[in-house]
Structure formats: C-alpha cells, structure tokens
Design brief:
Strand order of the largest sheet of chain A: 4-5-6-1-7-15-8
Distance between the termini of chain B: 34 Å
Strand content of chain B: 15-25%
Radius of gyration of chain B: 60 Å
Structural class of chain A: alpha+beta
Largest interface: A-B, 13 and 12 residues
Structural class of chain B: alpha+beta
Shape of chain A: globular
Number of helices of chain B: 14
Oligomer: heterodimer
Number of strands of chain B: 19
Largest sheet of chain B: 6 strands, antiparallel
Shape of chain B: rod-shaped
Strand content of chain A: 15-25%
Amino acid sequence: LLRRLAATSLAIVLLLAVLPARSARRPRYGGTLRVEIGTAVPSVDPDAPTITPEQTSTKIQIDSLIYESRDQDGTFNGDSGSGPFKILSWQPGKQLTLQANEKFGNGRPFVDSIEITMGRAFHDRLLDLELSKTDFTEIPAQEARHAVERGVRVNQSQPDELLAVVFLEPRARPTARQALSLAIDRSSIVTFLLQKVGEPTGALLPQWASGTSFLFSTAADVPRAKELWSQITPSPTFLLGYDSADSLEQSVAERIVVNAREAGISMTAVAEALPGATLHGSSPAQKTGAATKTARPAWPVDARLVRVAMSSPKPVSALNDLLLTFNSLAGGGISASPLRDLSSPSDIYEREREILDTYRIVPLVWLPQVYGLSARVRNWIAPLPGQTWPLADVWLDTDDKSTDIKDR
Amino acid sequence: VTFRSKLFLNFMIALLLAVGLVAAGVTVVTRRVFDEMNAQHSDAMVQQFQHEFERRGQDVAHRVKAIAEEEATTRMAVDLSRPNADVSVYVHDARGVSSSHQLNFLDFVGNDGAIISSQEYPARFGYKLPWVTQPDDWAARGAFLMKVETDQGPALGLMAVSTVRVGDRDLYVVGGERLGKEFLGSLVLPADMRALLYLNLDAEFQEPNLIDDKGPAPDADRFQRIVEKIEADPVEQTEKISWGFDPSNAEVFHALPLMGRQKELLGVLFVGSSQKTVVSLERRIRWLALGVGAVGLLLGLLLSWWGAARVTRPVQKLVVAAHEVSHGNWNARVDAHGNDEIGQLSKSFNQMTTQLVEQRERLVQVERVAAWRELARRLAHELKNPLFPLQTTVENLQRAREQNSAQFDEVFRESTGIMLGEIDNLKAIVSRFSDFAKMPQPELTAVNLNEIVRTVVKLFEAQFGAVGRPPITPELHLEENLPVIQADATLLHRAIENLILNAMDAMPAGGVLMLRTQKIEGGVSLEVSDTGTGLTPEESERIFTPYYTSKQHGSGLGLAIVQAIVADHGGRISVESESGVGTSFHIELPALPPHKPQVFPMVFEKKEDEA
C-alpha cells in the first residue's frame, strides 16, 4: 500500500509540474484561424433576409464577430466592424475573411484574421481537420465518437439541446401518448445512434442545469406500454414527423417506430421537408433560439420529433423558453405560463412534472454541441446556452503539436 | 330439282364436311402443338428461374461466407466475445459491409440472437432474431427464401447465414439479396414472355405486392385467384389470362410457388407467355387453311359438277329416251357403254324398247288379223242376208220351171224382182265399204268448231224431239272465244254427226246429250257425252275398230270414220264409258294440223269404279 501511495504521489507531482507549465504558457497574437462551416450564408447585410434557420443561426455567429454587442432580444449593436473583427473580404455563400479590429473596446482579438469557408460537407471538414487544413468546425453529435476514433481533437459543450417528441393537439389521447413514452428505449438511442454522446432524459431540463433530471425515469417499460395500448380501441396509427434534412432525427424517428411496433403501437415515420433546407451535416448548435423552430410548417402528423436548444444556462429562463417553444410546436395546449425568476428547484421540478404528466412532450435525449479543433487552437471554451462562439478569445499555438483530443 | 342438282348437292355437302373436318382437325392439332410449345417455353423459363435461383443462392451463400471470413468480422466476433463488450461500436457496420459485398440485406447477430447491426433495418439494433440461434447447420443449408423485415416494410429475400465462432460464442452473419424487380430484370426472357413475382408478405392478397421488372405490375387483381389457389395448394399452376376481347392479348401464366425455410408460401413466380405470336400463327394457318379450303371447294365444285354431269348424262339420255317412248316413239335408243349399272340400265332400256316395238308389231298383226276376221264375219253376215233370199228365189224359179207351172211367169217376175232387190242390197253393202275405203284427205280451212257444233245440233233438233220416241235434250257448253283452227269443216261436220247418231242410238229411252268445247294448249277440244246405256270395257276397247258394232243394225263404220277424221286432222280421240251411266267421247284437235297427219293410238280410259 505504501509503495502504491508513493507511486501515486510521484505521478501527481509530475503532473502538477507539467500542467502549470502548459497553463502558464502566454497567449500569442497573430495567425489566421481557419473555420469551416456547413451552411452557406448568402449575405452579411444585417437587413438581408435569410432563407433557412441554419443560415440564420450561422449569420448570428458571424454577426457576433463583427458587431460590438448583442441585446437580450438578439439585436446587434453598432456598425459592421465595430466588433472584434471587421470584414476583409466576402464571397457570398463561399468565403468570408475577417480581420482583427485593433480598436475593439474589449481588446484586440488574439488572431489576426479568421477565414470562414462556407458550404463544406461534414466529411470534407473532418478530413480537413485530420489534415490540419482547418482549425475549427462543427461536428454532429452522432459523429463525435467516429471523429475521435479518427484522431480528431473534439470538444463538446454541456448538453444543451433537447431531442423530444411533441404531440400535436388533439390528435393523440393521453393513454396512447403515455404508451409511446414507455415504449421508447432512450438508452439505446444514446448508446447506438448517438454513440454514447448525450444523455438519455425524461426531463425538460438537463441534469447539469436543474439537478433533478434523474428523478424522471428514462427506462422503457414495454409490457406496460402494451397494456396501455391494448386499452385503446380503436387503435390509432401514429404519424411521427421528422426533419428530412436531419439524419439524426431520421435515425431516431425510425428507432422510435421500431420501439413502438415492438410494443404493438402502430406508428409510421414521415419525413417532413423544410423549404430551402441545405444542411451539410451541420450541428444543431446553429439552431439557437426558439424562433428558428417555430418556422416549421404544419404537417398532418400526430407527433413530431424536434430538437430544441436551451436559450439560457439559467433553469427558469431555459424552462420558460422551452415551454414557449414546445407550445408553439404543439399548436398550443401546453401550459406556457412563465415561472418566476426566483423559483426554487422544487418549483421547477413540479412544473416539469406537471407538463410531462400530460405526455404532450416526451423528452428523449439531451445533446451537447460538438466542435472539432485543430491542435494549435488554444483557449477554446465551449459556449453556454445562448452564447455565441468565442472565437475572439482563441489564440493559435503554432509550436504545439500535441493532440489534445478532449478539451473539456 | 334435277337428279344432277341433287347429286351435285350431295357431292358439295360431302366436300364441305370433309373440308370442315380437315379444318377442324388442323385447328385442334395446331392448337395442341402450340399449347405444347407454350408449355415447353414455360417449363424452360421455370427451369431457368430455378437454375438462376440456385445460382443466386450459391452466390449469396458464398458472399455471406466471405463476409464471415473477413478479418474485420473476426475482430468483431473476438471483441463481442469479451465480457461487457461495447456493441454500439458496430451499429453502422452492416451498411458498409453489405455495400462492399453487394448484398441488399445484412445483419450481424450476436450470440443471443440480438441484432448488432442491420443494413435493411438500421433502427432495429438490439432486437432479436430468434430463428438465427435455433439449431441448424447453416453451412449445409445454403440459401433459402425468407420474409425480411426492413424499414420500408417486409420484403422477400434470398438469404444465407454464416457463423463466426469465437470460444463458445457465435457471431451470425445473415445476408441476402432482395427478390424484386431487379431480380426479375436480370432474368433473360424471350420477347414474348415476361416474369412477374408476387411477394406473399401479407395475410391477404395485396395488389402492389405483384411486381414486374419495372415495379408494381398493372392489373394485379387478375392474379388474385391464382395466388389464392396456390396458397390453398402450393403446387405449380397454369392459367390463361385474357386482357381483352382480342385473343392475341391473352397470356398463359405458369405459376411457380416459392416456399420458405419452414415450407411456408413466400412468393409466386409467374412466367407469362404472350399468345400474340401463337394467335398470329394460328390465324395465319387458319387463313391458309381457309384459302386452301376455298380453292379446294372451288375445285370440288367444278369436279362435283363435272362428276355429276358425267354420272347423270346417261341417265339424262335415258330420261329423254323414256320421254320419247312415252310419246310413242318406241324406236328411241340410248348409247350403252360399259358394264356398270348405268350401262346395264341403258342396255335394258334398249332391250325393253326393242321388245315393245316387236310386241306392238305383233299386236298390230294380231289386230289386223282380227280386223280382217271381223270384216270377213261382217261381210259374210251382210252378204249372207241377201244371198239366202237369192238362193231361195233361184230354187223357186228352178222348181217352177221343172213343174212347168202356169204360175212360172208370175214366179219368174216375183223372183227377179226379189233378186234385183237383194242385188241392190249387195250393191249398197259394197258401196258403204267402198265409201269407207275412199275417205278423202281433209282440205284445211279456218273453221270455228262452235259453229260446226251448232249447225250439226240444229240439223238433229227435229229428231231429238220426234214424235213417238223419247226426247233427247241437247246441252251445249261452248267456250266463247274459242280459237279458230285449221280443219276440214265437212269432215268435222260428218264426224260430229256420227257421234250424235251414236249417242242417239245409245239413248233409246231418251236422255241428255251434252256437247262441250274448250280451249286447250295448242288447239281445241270437243266432248260429246250421253246418258245412255254405256259400253262394256271390251266394247270400249274395240269401238273404233272398223266394222265393229254393238248394235243390231249398225255397219260398224261410224266411229271408225270419226277416228279416221280426227287422226287425219292430227288430233286424238278417246272414250270414257260406264255401263248404265253413259259414254263420253273426247276429241282434241290442234290449231294447225301437222304436215303429215300422225296416227295416234287409241286411248281407252276406265273410270275408277270400273277398275
């Protein structure tokens, strides 16, 4: 035991000797940060209309780099170039080059410039990361494990995007909704489809935000689901809609259909095409804010698989916004009366329980945002819900060749 | 309808029957041959399918085995054999592997039967395929048909299973090919054949489950009955389906049941053979047969006509000859050739007419002898009457001379007077016979028979109602507009006189004398009837014989003269008589007598009751 303690102590000492040295390394100015994204933004004009929610989300990320500040309502303040960067060159839909704003009030960014290449497919971006041709890109959650296996440096945020089934009023009865909720095997979705990225959930807020998520069961109960379904006569057939451009939604929807059929529930997955959607494996992290989701047209489906991002790290705000969003997606009928800012955790829990007991919303998985980083990127901190990419704080270490694959 | 027409008609019917039978036979035989050809085609297609099916099965089994033997699969098996192995790593492997091995279906199944990765149903990971873990020698089984659950619904697959064993744990590789339109498209079919596949994936017949090489087959409902029949009894069936009124649109389908591992019916392969070519060939043959039949009929028509003419020509000659014989030309002859029935008939006819002529000549000879005998008898009778007084008178004279009687002179005077009287009688007798012999030839002029009849009847009016004898009532039925004929009015006058005298003699007790004239074809007729005693049949037969009489004081020449006058005018006379009822004489006179008067035979007709 003494020998083991001695060895452990030695290891800790050596580790402490190394880590301070790294963290003590001083940030460097200069260099060009190469960013590749899947979405093609047609214009950086603040008044130009965007076409898809993904383009809107991406434009918000760009605007946050060239405008001074952003209000709570999402409006950016100041002129273009008043932010940490200003536009150096612009090829609509293809490439945007930003130059560091020396006069930025919060201090000059570390990198001299940022080159943002748009419209790149995920597999190309992953390949560029492997070949060090880019420094930063988004990675779909379900591809994170694959990227790690390929040696890519991956960073992921706290789970901040809820994948859930929302029933449209009044197409399904509560018993049927409950039966479906009990039939879904959430852990398999996380284990197989998301390759162990994300956490299965039965709650409206993630565990890290509310601390009470574990109180909501995620276990499937197929016998009970069958029993409930057998009580329904005549048995309906559910149509479950999903975004046809979202491969994760598609695979999860198909899995839900399999789970449902195993429980005897008649269900069919229906792909819903969003007009103008041109996702190239882009991350749902771009879908910041509930407004992007409400743009969906109404489809003749009974339920819809949706991904709703948290708008704030604060549980009350996040829950209020989530409920507003779900109420909008469900076509009303979900209690959207806001909680007070000073509501206690038990109040939040009660509210969640009250909503979830109606089975209008069936939470499935909390997903994190996953980013791929090159080895020279330093000081990257994944943004919290409601925040934009902190690229102005990133600096490039051109000498360091280490491959820190997980930077949490 | 002539005999030739009947014969020709019979020939034609026989020919039509023969042609019809041949055409029907050709049609039946042709259809049978085509049916056999179709069956052979279908059998060949079924064999091709079975061969292709077997080859595909071997190929699938080979590919599945190759996957099982790959290094990656072995590593997967090794990895999964460890405790707490992370199965999720392999959840997407089936898709890539199946793509590289060109398999439509691929499942990696764990030792417990749970799906690790599925190509055809990616979302079905974690669920079990219990049949995979059931004891079976998968290596020996090869490929088999199976209903495969996919994310697009059930499908029919040609599947094979291979196992990778690590320690005491198995990793099952379940792979296969979809049996669908691609499979049908890979079958090499003749131009007039097609293959359909019914996927028996549902409890009841579903029309979209019937596919061809392009997708769902049209008019699938027409196959429902066949599928249901095979479901009830899974054996090969052959059915014909018509796609409209045109028989060339029909197809003959050979239905082959496709059975699964548990002998369940999973599909039905339909090999359809279009009847277009067959019907076209049948039609061509039929038209050819009709053409040949028509030509045959035409030839048969001509040959029948020729044959009928050839057969009936001697018969026609016989008919003409018989007709001539019936009109009195007993010398008619026909050419008798050959020894067949017609030849024998002709010879018999000729023999018959020869015998008729000979018999007629004998009859004439006999009648002539009889006439001479009658003449001799009449002459003897007529002459004997005056000769007897002559003899007596001469003997009286001789006796008176020998006795020197004083009355000799008176006796002489009386005797010579008597003798002269008898000599006058003899001269009268000779004169009558001389008159009959010297009957003049008629001098033809245009005469009206009605006028002659009226004139003669007028002459006899006084005698009809003479005092002391029963009255005779004349009745004239003379047809108006009777045509004028060429005749000798004097001779006709004499003939009618004789007939009226004859009738008056036949009615000693009075009666009705009826004279009727009528227009007949080519001339006129005269009927003279009485209501007298009538004649016996013998008398009727001999009544026109010269010097024959049934009367006490008749000369027997009156009716003979009548017959001679009628005959000289080219006419004919006949008598009808019934004893106790009366007698009727019928005379027919031509409008224009022939150049040379003919001798018509006497016709003796008897009434029904006489017979």
